[in-house]
Design brief:
This protein is α/β, with parallel strands linked by helices. Helix content is about 60%, strand content about 15%.
Length: about 190
């Protein structure tokens, strides 16, 4: 496991690193400030940020970094101002622990954060797939309606025709439906088929 530990306090950073003992293989890089370039170069499996109190610049840097290259982030802070925990979570922090840094807890907090990160990643993928499936269904419905109107087909016959076109072309049904709508739009002169 590759871990980037970001902490301006070397003693606290050492405590975090000691809490990772027993993880094999383990490669730890310590830094006093969060540097997105360093983070991407090192390609950590998890980022651990420890500080007295998180600052908005660090949180914004984490947001940009995790948006471009998602990975679990754990923050151990001694104190927190109202709203910072929410800002950190929105920036991609998987675990935000206030006044709870103890060597014995580091490993378990990292494991929970990594599990939560995986779960959230899967949920995001599922959501994106559901959105794409819904958009495809809407496109298929519009293409069926077009075929029903232009060819005088009933709904089942229009669907069978779309499915046959899809199989003949070796392309997804939604893509064939989108092509049909686009082509019909070009023929009618509106350019986008919608």
């Amino acid at each position: 496991m590759r871990v980037l530990v970001v902490d301006p306090d070397p003693a606290r950073a050492a405590l975090v690193t000691e809490g990772l003992t027993g993880i094999v293989p383990l490669e730890v890089v310590q830094s006093t400030v969060f540097d997105p370039v360093q983070a991407m170069r090192f390609e950590p499996d998890v980022i651990v940020v420890a500080s007295d109190s998180p600052d908005r610049d660090t949180i914004e840097s984490l947001r940009e970094t995790t948006a471009a290259n998602p990975r679990p982030v754990v923050m151990f802070v001694d104190r927190s101002e109202p709203g910072l925990a929410e800002a950190a979570v929105r920036a991609g922090v998987s675990a935000y622990v206030v006044d709870g840094l103890a060597k014995a807890r580091v490993r378990s907090v990292l494991e929970v954060a990594m599990s939560r990160f995986q779960l959230m990643s899967q949920l995001r993928q599922d959501l994106e797939k559901a959105k794409a499936d819904l958009a495809s269904r809407k496109t298929v419905e519009r293409a069926k309606a077009l075929l029903m109107k232009e060819r005088g087909l009933d709904e089942e016959a229009a669907y069978r025709l779309l499915r046959k076109l899809s199989m003949d072309a070796g392309r997804p049904l939604g893509a064939v439906a989108a092509d049909l709508l686009t082509f019909a739009g070009v023929l009618k002169g509106d350019g986008d088929g919608r």
